[in-house]
Design brief:
Oligomer: single chain
Distance between the termini: 97 Å
Shape: elongated
Number of helices: 2
Largest sheet: 5 strands, antiparallel
Helix content: 10-25%
Radius of gyration: 22 Å
Low-confidence stretches: 149-156
Mean pLDDT: 85
Strand order of the largest sheet: 4-3-7-8-9
Order of helices and strands: HEEEEEHEEEE
Length: 156
């Protein structure tokens, strides 16, 4: 009976150890410290990203549209609203992706990811920042944020 108790205790200890290592690795590779927001504008996709663990860091961001990689950039543009909202100590956390040259009219979705490096540069992970950003492409290839009213004047 003592052997059974010892084996159960050993199994529990191993399970706790493996679980702790898995959580530690996950938090190292995917820290929950990236916060941000984005929107569709007539010129492209813009927003901001802050790494709360390193608030002065300029975060590298990548843009995906409809699940496909489109561009990479840096969140290093002025966004005073981020400071006013209390998300950062300085205003240099904005990003902007212009002239996306998209094809195919209809509804599309952009997603911005923060590039996080861990493991002394050996691991790189993409972390979703904010919600998917919906936008429409009209018949002429122009980007329109959703729910944008287009006024058409009839000429007589």
């Amino acid at each position: 009976m003592k052997l059974v108790h010892a084996l159960i205790a050993k199994s529990l200890a191993e399970t706790i150890l493996v679980g702790t290592l898995a959580v530690a690795f996950y938090l190292s590779a995917f820290p929950p410290t990236f916060h941000g927001w984005g929107e569709a504008l007539p010129q492209g996709i813009a927003g901001w990203v802050v790494n709360q663990a390193e608030p002065r860091e300029r975060v590298e961001v990548q843009l995906f549209i409809d699940g496909r990689f489109v561009a990479t950039g840096s969140a290093n543009q002025s966004r005073p609203d981020v400071v006013l909202a209390g998300w950062a100590e300085d205003e240099w956390h904005g990003y902007r992706f212009d002239a996306l040259n998209l094809r195919g009219p209809g509804r599309h979705y952009a997603q911005v990811y923060a590039l996080h490096t861990s493991g002394r540069g050996r691991r790189k992970t993409l972390q979703i920042v904010g919600d998917p950003i919906p936008f429409d492409i009209d018949d002429k290839g122009a980007l329109r944020p959703p729910n944008t009213v287009v006024l058409i004047r009839e000429i007589n």
